[in-house]
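Researcher: Here's the sequence for the chain we discussed earlier.
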Amino acid sequence: MLFRSILSYWTKTVTITALFVGMTFAPLPNQKASAQTSPSGLYVCNESGENLNVTVAYYNGYIWTTQGRYQLSQTPGSCIQVQNSLTNTRYYLYATSDSGNQWQGNHPFCIGSTPNFTIPYADETQYCGSVQNFFSVWVPNPVTGISPTFYGYTFAPNNYSNNWNSPRAER
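Model: Thanks. This is the structure I predict for it:
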């Protein structure tokens, strides 16, 4: 009974806060809300119908870093966490599908060719072997400027190349 009361209070608090901040709260797939944990960090989700390889670029306070080849299943609604916490206002993403579709932008970063790579100084593209153009994702609420504890970007079949439909993705 105590757990149910805490969970009810937590859910109402998050819902009210989300409405105040101007965003909607919906637990990410495979995330169960509980009194002890809540989602945090940057997530990427897949509604494209294709298997994806995702790379994220971020500033860690000193240098630009790329991490990647996160494999994202074609199962609708599948999500993975690519950053444990949101410490930046902007992240950069790049993804490719098995069929060759690319989700890209105009921000060049170094990229690795193997799974599970991390490249420091990824913005110094003149020194790396492979460069791809990433698109930016702004994390703060565009109206209030407040950053949430988690943010999810969804790859869809109609938002690859230069036809992104995310309101916070660069156009």
